User: Which sequence fits this backbone?
């Protein structure tokens, strides 16, 4: 074992000596090339560059070494100062307690009579109140953890995994709903980018609310399918409550109602201004500049009819569900 250690140390010493000799040889070669006038300019320039790079490297290493030494020194000094302060504090406490214990007894009695009750009220009572709150909330928290572990992890997630196809269709319907809603908004805004008589087309500025609400119907249908799988006892009440969202008459009601409001706010002023700009200076100018409320009332009548049909169908479904 001792022979192996001696061999390793010899190898390390030999390697270190070889590195030092190599570096020394390069430095001497560079210095000689700087002072020999018969050497070529290229070699002289290369020697200068090597000398500058080595000087920069040496200066960088020296600066880093000095910086590290100063940092280590100040770190040790800061720790020694902290240790000295702690040592001096406990030394003062020990000496005063050994020499004059009456001082400490007096301080303890002052603390017990003056500060003790206030500290007890300020610290212990809030902790007691916190303990009461924790004891009241802890059962509720335990029930939530149990519900999450038993009902969701062991019950709901396996059911969702078994119905992954319906979940995908449900998510796809939600995506198509938002897509169709954006397309309807863009189409309605683009309908106002017209000129002249083209802006007076009867079905030009119509917001398409039927297509998004059709996807709402699909979302509700997939939700009912999943709900019946998870809880079959809720099938009939859910069918009863969700039927209006499945009936297309409700979609027609919202379609006509939204278009009535949009026509009253945007369409009526816009079409009136377009007609008035196209009017000639004749007897029809007053009629052309008069607002046309007929589409507004037509939308309201159609919305009322659709809402009435939806309620009729809903009452029929309620009767069928109650009889079944």
Assistant:
């Amino acid at each position: 074992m001792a022979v192996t250690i001696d061999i390793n140390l010899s190898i390390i010493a030999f390697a270190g000596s070889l590195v030092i000799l190599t570096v020394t040889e390069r430095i001497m070669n560079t210095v000689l090339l700087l002072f020999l006038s018969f050497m070529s300019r290229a070699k002289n320039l290369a020697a200068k560059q090597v000398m500058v790079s080595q000087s920069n490297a040496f200066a960088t290493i020296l600066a880093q070494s000095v910086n590290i030494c100063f940092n280590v020194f100040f770190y040790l000094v800061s720790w020694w100062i902290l240790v000295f302060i702690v040592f001096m504090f406990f030394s003062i406490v020990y000496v005063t307690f050994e020499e004059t214990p009456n001082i400490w007894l007096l301080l303890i009695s002052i603390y017990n009579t003056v500060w003790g009750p206030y500290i007890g009220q300020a610290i212990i009572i809030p902790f007691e109140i916190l303990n009461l709150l924790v004891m009241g909330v802890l059962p509720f928290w335990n029930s939530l953890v149990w519900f999450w572990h038993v009902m969701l992890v062991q019950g709901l997630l396996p059911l969702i995994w078994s119905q992954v196809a319906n979940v995908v269709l449900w998510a796809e319907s939600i995506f198509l709903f938002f897509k169709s809603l954006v397309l309807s908004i863009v189409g309605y805004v683009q309908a106002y980018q017209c000129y002249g008589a083209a802006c007076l087309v009867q079905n030009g500025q119509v917001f398409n609310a039927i297509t998004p609400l059709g996807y709402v119907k699909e979302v509700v249908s997939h939700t009912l399918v999943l709900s019946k799988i998870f809880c079959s006892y809720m099938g009939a009440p859910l069918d009863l409550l969700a039927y209006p969202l499945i009936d297309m008459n409700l979609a027609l009601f919202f379609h006509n109602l939204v278009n009535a409001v949009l026509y009253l706010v945007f369409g009526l002023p816009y079409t009136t201004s377009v007609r008035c700009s196209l009017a000639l200076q004749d007897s029809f100018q007053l009629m052309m500049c008069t607002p046309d409320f007929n589409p507004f009332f037509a939308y309201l009548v159609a919305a009322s009819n659709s809402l009435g049909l939806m309620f009729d169908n809903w009452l029929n479904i309620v009767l069928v569900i109650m009889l079944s």
About this structure: The mean pLDDT is 79. The radius of gyration is 45 Å.
